[in-house]
Design goal:
With 382 residues, the chain is an all-alpha fold. Helices cover 78% and strands 0% of the residues. The protein has 18 helices and no strands.
C-alpha cells in the first residue's frame, strides 16, 4: 500500500502530466496567433499544423487505451513526453511548413501516449471526478502563466520561443513522470468487458463538444483583433480566461459532484457552449465579446469533469478514461482546420452558426446516454 507522502507525489505527477498533455487546450489562441502572425501561415495552414498535433495525440490514445491495463504506464508516460519535448525543441529551429508539420505530428503522438496513461491512471484513483477537477484547476493556473507571458515573450524574443516553451514543458513532465508516476494495480480479467451503449454515447457527446470548443477557441485572438479591439485588451481577455478557468469550473465541479445530476450537467454544457460561441464570433462590442470569450473554455472544463467521473463509473477498468485524449481529440483535431476553412471562406460569423448545430448533436448524445439502459445512477450526497 502506498504511503500518504507517496500518494501525494503520485497525484502531483498525474496533475503535471495532465497539464503538459492538455497544453493545446490552453495555448490554442497564442499557438494559432503565432503561426499566423509570426510564421506568416494562412489561417488554414495554421489550423492544419495544430490539427496534426491533435491528430497524433488522438491516434496514440486510440491505440493505447484498449491496452491500458497491459502496459507499463510510467515508462510510456516518461518516454512519450520525452519524444514530444524533443520534437518541439527541434521545431524551434525550423520554419518550413512541411518540416513543422512532421514535428507537430511527432509531438502529438508523444503527448497523446503519455496523456492516455495519465488519464487511465486517474480513472483508477479513489475519486476520479475530484482528481480530474484538481488537474483542470492546475491547467487553469498554467493557462494564466502561458497566456500572460507567451505573447510578451514572442514580442521580446524570436518566434521560436513558442516551441522552446512547449518543449520545456514536455521535458519537465517527462522528468516528473519518471520520478513520481505510480502504476495502478492490475485489473481482473472479468472486468474487461465491452463498453455499453451509455459509455459510447457519452464518449461521442464529449468528442463532439470538444470539436466545438476547438473550432471556435482556436481563433479567439484572431477574432478579437479583427473586431478592432486593442491588442492589450485582447491579451487582458485571454489572461482573464486563464484566471476564470483556474478559479471557477474545476472547483465548482468538485463541490457539486454529489449535489447535482452528472447526466443533467452533461446535457446543459453544450447548450451554454453554443450561446457563448455566438457571442465570441458575432459580437462587435467589447461588453459582449469579452465575457463570451473569457467564459468559453469554462463550460468545456466543467462539463468534461462530470463526463470523466461518469466514465470512471461506467467502466471501472480505466480503459474509457484512458481514451479521454482520443474521445476529445477526435473532435479537437479537426476543429482548428474546419474553423480555418469556415473563417477563410465564409467569415468568422460562420463559426458561430456551425457551433449551434454541433452543440445540438452533442446534447442529443448526452440525452440518449442519460436514458440508456446502461447508464449509471446519479451520485447524491450521503
Amino acid at each position: 500500500m502506498l504511503t500518504k507522502e507517496t500518494s501525494r507525489a503520485a497525484l502531483a505527477a498525474l496533475v503535471i502530466c495532465h497539464c503538459a498533455g492538455m497544453l493545446d487546450m490552453v495555448a490554442l489562441p497564442v499557438w494559432i496567433g503565432a503561426l499566423v502572425g509570426r510564421y506568416d501561415f494562412s489561417a488554414q495552414q495554421a489550423g492544419g499544423l495544430v490539427t496534426l498535433f491533435m491528430g497524433g495525440a488522438f491516434l496514440a490514445s486510440l491505440v493505447l487505451a484498449p491496452r491500458f491495463n497491459t502496459l507499463d504506464q510510467r515508462r510510456i508516460a516518461t518516454g512519450s513526453f520525452g519524444i514530444a519535448g524533443a520534437a518541439f525543441l527541434l521545431a524551434s529551429t525550423q520554419s518550413g511548413f512541411w518540416i513543422l508539420a512532421a514535428l507537430h505530428l511527432a509531438a502529438g503522438l508523444g503527448a497523446g501516449s503519455a496523456l492516455s496513461m495519465a488519464h487511465g491512471t486517474m480513472g483508477r484513483t479513489a475519486n476520479p471526478h475530484r482528481t480530474f477537477a484538481i488537474s483542470f484547476a492546475a491547467l487553469g493556473f498554467l493557462a494564466i502563466i502561458l497566456l500572460a507571458t507567451l505573447p510578451q515573450l514572442l514580442i521580446a524574443f524570436e518566434r521560436s520561443v513558442l516551441f522552446v516553451v512547449f518543449g520545456g514543458i514536455m521535458v519537465l513532465a517527462a522528468i516528473i513522470a519518471g520520478l513520481m508516476f505510480r502504476n495502478p494495480p492490475m485489473v481482473a480479467e472479468q472486468l474487461k468487458k465491452p463498453f455499453n451503449r451509455a459509455t459510447w454515447l457519452t464518449i461521442f457527446g464529449i468528442g463532439i463538444m470538444t470539436f466545438n470548443q476547438s473550432m471556435v477557441f482556436s481563433f479567439v485572438e484572431v477574432i478579437g483583433t479583427l473586431r478592432g479591439f486593442e491588442p492589450d485588451t485582447v491579451l487582458g481577455v485571454l489572461i482573464a480566461l486563464g484566471c476564470i478557468n483556474f478559479l471557477v469550473p474545476a472547483p465548482l465541479a468538485a463541490v457539486l459532484q454529489t449535489r447535482v445530476s452528472a447526466p443533467l450537467m452533461t446535457q446543459l454544457g453544450p447548450m451554454i457552449q453554443a450561446a457563448l460561441a455566438l457571442g465570441v464570433t458575432t459580437a462587435t462590442v467589447l461588453p459582449i465579446w469579452a465575457p463570451s470569450a473569457a467564459f468559453f473554455v469554462t463550460t468545456q472544463i466543467f462539463t468534461h469533469t462530470f463526463v470523466f467521473g461518469l466514465l470512471s463509473r461506467l467502466d471501472p477498468t480505466g480503459r474509457a478514461t484512458a481514451a479521454t485524449p482520443a474521445m476529445a481529440l477526435i473532435g479537437a483535431a479537426s476543429g482548428p482546420f474546419v474553423g480555418g476553412v469556415l473563417a477563410q471562406n465564409l467569415g468568422y460569423e460562420a463559426l458561430g452558426m456551425a457551433a449551434v448545430a454541433v452543440s445540438l448533436c452533442s446534447t442529443l448524445c448526452f440525452t440518449m446516454a442519460r436514458y440508456s439502459s446502461g447508464a449509471v445512477q446519479p451520485l447524491r450526497a450521503a
